[in-house]
């Protein structure tokens, strides 16, 4: 806490905090208010007498209904959920095992390999999609969910591996040694002791991987073309921006509804699981 | 129950750090053997090699009558207690203790019986449903012990199990460990850096330094006849006094001389130091073997010292004194009254003098 005069507390603590919260939350507010604002208000010029950008007195569900009735939004949600869930599971399984191996098995070049895996995460997707498009075409996976399920792990696995490696390194190795003296093989020690202890880390990696694939744009834009196959970010932007016409109401409704599942997943797991599992060792 | 035999064992890390050098030890059946030494002396590495957590660069380790060099930890029939307890945080106390039995496919009733027996011995029956994070340090320590004893292993390995406890609890757990060992009679190897733990717990004590065994013996043997200057200084508190002296023959006797100090060496030491006239050596005497000189003390065992610090402990007074260029710590009768800068005449107990070679530091 900042000591001293009241003005110091305001200048160095309260005001920066308020600014920060405002900057973070204002886009969400804007999204919500636009979703429920009727078109008449949305396209009213700024110098009109009843111009009222931050509030509406006539909330409507028109945009949400339009989204479900006139576009394949429900389908996009299912697509996105399926793709994000499957690619997260694949990446988590690979990431957990790779992270464990890099953290605990002393094989040659383990350190260097860890760095190389991280570097692959840094290769920009805007470059990587070009060769990947060729591969997807050769395997005839274009315009199917599998195009994304198999390409998302290219950035999710390095990410999960790196995160899990750090987490496994933080687990005292005595836990595992003790399990092995107790009669567990390395595999059993991992399954019965290390993985349960690593659950908070696995969940964090899972949440982040899920969010990353939920929000992914470039691969989804490139590899999917028919409206029924699209994911939420691509569907919303490609179907609701026609030429230079922006359908702001449905766009924002799509953004709002699209962000809800992620928010639910996130808050549920944070609340229930990502609290410390401590007490095994002297802390 | 088994003996453990360590035969010419070496450990070299990454081809250049020689952590354990040619260690050979016989730990007898039912013996409580303590490895003691400063950090980095190789004691923990040796223990971990016995446990199978560390590979052996060369040599043999035998438990019972099996060479265990290539056996994984689970097949060595040992139990280990770690410094940080290493309790499984997601399991209750019961399951922590039962884990080793489950892995070995014991029947449910047998597991239940053994865990409850062990819990009764350690006084933790009421804690069986708790998770480790709900326990205090001492309780966690007991659970870690319980996890070791339920399996009735051939050998217990302890890696500084008390060093995370506060001073009072440590003394209490030390006593309990001793009782536990007497009750179970299992061979035990105990690693510590605390010489008090080593002296009080060990049937025998191994003093290690720089990967080399300095001396093996019963606690009093190490205390009374240390093999070298390191053991002499490491065992005992306050530590033994050392003074660099020159040996000089005069009047048919051998004298240890330094600035402000001229001690006539008693016969056994003088005989062992025969032929070292003019050589440098280190004179050692424990604080408790120095007392205020009385008229009955022979002059050739007395010296004058200036008091620098007085530490009144109630049961004794620990004096830091200076004699020429050497410092002597003496523990004297608590009823004596003195001030800093007083000059006192102190006397050494001739039977308790130690002399060490200046080069090799071995006892003479």
Tally of distinct domains of chain A: 2
Strand content of chain A: under 5%
Oligomer state equals: heterodimer
Flag low-confidence runs of chain A: 276-283
> Which geometry of chain A do the CA atoms define?
globular
| Chains forming the largest contact | A-B, 24 and 33 residues
Could you give the distance between the termini of chain A? 25 Å
Which stretches of chain B are low in confidence, meaning pLDDT under 50 for 5 or more residues running?
Answer: none
Order of the strands making up the biggest sheet of chain B: 6-7-8-3-9-10
What's the count of strands of chain B?
20
Q: What proportion of the residues of chain A is helical, as a percent range?
A: over 70%
Task: Write a structural description.
The complex is a heterodimer of chains A (283) and B (364). Chain A has 283 residues and is mainly α. Chain A has two domains: 6-60, no CATH class; 64-272, MetI-like (MetI-like fold). Chain A is 72% helix and 1% strand. Chain A has helices spanning 6-35, 39-42, 62-70, 73-104, 110-122, 125-138, 145-151, 153-170, 173-181, 186-197, 199-215, 218-223, 232-239, 248-272, and strands spanning 241-242, 245-246. In chain A, strands 1-2 form a two-stranded antiparallel sheet. In chain A, β1 and β2 (245-246) form a beta hairpin. The radius of gyration of chain A is 24 Å and the shape is globular. With 364 residues, chain B is an alpha+beta fold. Chain B folds into two domains: 4-227, Rossmann fold (3-Layer(aba) Sandwich), CATH 3.40.50.300; 241-357, OB fold (Dihydrolipoamide Acetyltransferase, E2P) (Beta Barrel). Chain B has helices spanning 43-51, 93-103, 108-122, 137-149, 167-184, 195-201, 219-224, 229-234, 267-272; strands spanning 4-13, 17-27, 32-36, 58-63, 66-67, 78-81, 155-159, 187-192, 204-209, 212-217, 241-250, 253-258, 261-264, 280-285, 290-292, 302-312, 317-323, 326-332, 343-348, 354-357. In chain B, the strands form four sheets. Chain B has a six-stranded mixed β-sheet with strand order 6-7-8-3-9-10, sandwiched between helices. In chain B, strands 13-12-11-14-20 form a five-stranded antiparallel β-sheet. In chain B, α2 packs across α3, α2 packs parallel to α4 and α3 packs across α4. The radius of gyration of chain B is 25 Å and the shape is elongated. The two termini of chain B are 39 Å apart. The mean pLDDT of chain B is 89. The chains are: A mainly alpha (283), B alpha+beta (364). At the A-B interface, α9 and α10 of A face β6, α2 and α4 of B.
């Amino acid at each position: 806490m900042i000591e001293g005069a009241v003005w110091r507390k305001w200048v160095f603590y309260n005001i920066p905090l308020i600014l920060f919260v405002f900057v973070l939350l204002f886009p969400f507010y804007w999204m919500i208010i636009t979703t429920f604002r009727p078109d008449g208000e949305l396209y009213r010029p700024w110098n009109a007498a009843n111009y009222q950008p931050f509030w509406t007195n006539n909330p409507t569900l028109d945009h949400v209904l339009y989204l479900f009735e006139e576009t394949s939004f429900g389908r996009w949600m299912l697509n996105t959920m399926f793709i994000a869930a499957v690619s997260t599971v694949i990446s988590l399984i690979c990431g957990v095992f790779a992270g464990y191996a890099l953290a605990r098995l002393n094989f040659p070049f383990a350190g260097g390999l860890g760095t190389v895996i991280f570097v692959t995460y840094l290769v920009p997707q805007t470059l990587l999609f070009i060769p990947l498009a060729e591969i997807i075409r050769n395997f005839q996976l274009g315009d199917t969910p599998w195009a994304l399920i198999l390409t998302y792990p290219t950035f999710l696995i390095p990410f999960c591996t790196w995160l899990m490696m750090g987490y496994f390194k933080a687990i005292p190795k005595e836990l595992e040694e003790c399990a092995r003296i107790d009669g567990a093989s390395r595999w059993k020690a991992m399954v019965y002791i290390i993985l349960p202890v690593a659950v908070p880390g696995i969940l964090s990696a899972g949440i982040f991987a899920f969010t990353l694939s939920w929000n992914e744009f470039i691969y989804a834009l490139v590899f999917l073309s028919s409206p029924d196959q699209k994911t939420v970010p691509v569907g919303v932007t490609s179907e609701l921006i026609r030429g230079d016409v922006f359908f702001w109401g449905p766009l924002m409704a799509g953004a709002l509804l699209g962000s809800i599942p992620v928010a639910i997943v996130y808050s549920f797991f944070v609340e229930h699981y990502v609290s410390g599992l401590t007490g095994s060792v002297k802390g | 129950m088994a003996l453990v035999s360590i035969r010419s064992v070496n450990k070299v890390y990454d081809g250049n750090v020689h952590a354990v050098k040619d260690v050979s030890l016989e730990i007898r059946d039912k013996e409580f053997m303590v490895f003691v030494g400063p950090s980095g002396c190789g004691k923990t590495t040796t223990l971990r090699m016995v446990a199978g957590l560390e590979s052996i660069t060369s040599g043999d380790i035998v438990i019972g009558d099996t060479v265990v060099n290539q056996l994984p930890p689970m097949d060595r029939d040992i139990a280990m207690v770690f410094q940080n307890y290493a309790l499984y945080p997601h399991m209750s106390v019961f399951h922590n203790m039962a884990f080793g039995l489950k892995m070995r496919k014991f029947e449910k009733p047998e597991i239940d019986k053994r865990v409850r027996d062990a819990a009764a011995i350690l006084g933790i029956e009421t804690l069986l449903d708790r998770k480790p994070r709900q326990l205090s340090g001492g309780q966690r320590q007991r659970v870690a012990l319980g996890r070791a004893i339920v399996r009735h292993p051939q050998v217990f390995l302890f890696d500084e199990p008390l060093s995370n406890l506060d001073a009072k609890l440590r003394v209490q757990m030390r006593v309990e460990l001793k009782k536990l060992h007497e009750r179970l009679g299992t061979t035990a190897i105990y690693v510590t850096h605390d010489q008090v733990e080593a002296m009080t717990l060990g049937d025998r004590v191994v003093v290690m330094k720089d990967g080399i065994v300095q001396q093996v013996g019963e606690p009093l043997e190490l205390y009374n006849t240390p093999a070298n200057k390191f053991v002499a200084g490491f065992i005992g508190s306050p530590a033994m006094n050392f003074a660099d002296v020159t040996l000089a023959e005069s009047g048919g006797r051998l004298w240890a001389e330094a600035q402000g100090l001229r001690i006539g060496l008693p016969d056994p030491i003088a005989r062992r130091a025969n032929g070292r006239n003019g050589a440098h050596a280190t004179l050692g005497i424990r604080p408790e073997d120095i007392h205020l000189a009385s008229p009955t003390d022979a002059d050739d065992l007395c010296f004058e010292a200036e008091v620098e610090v007085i530490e009144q402990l109630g049961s004794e007074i620990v004096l830091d004194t200076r004699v020429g260029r050497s410092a002597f710590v003496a523990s004297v009768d608590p009823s004596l009254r003195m001030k800093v800068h007083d000059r006192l005449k102190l006397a050494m107990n001739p039977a308790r003098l130690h002399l060490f070679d200046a080069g090799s530091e071995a006892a003479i």
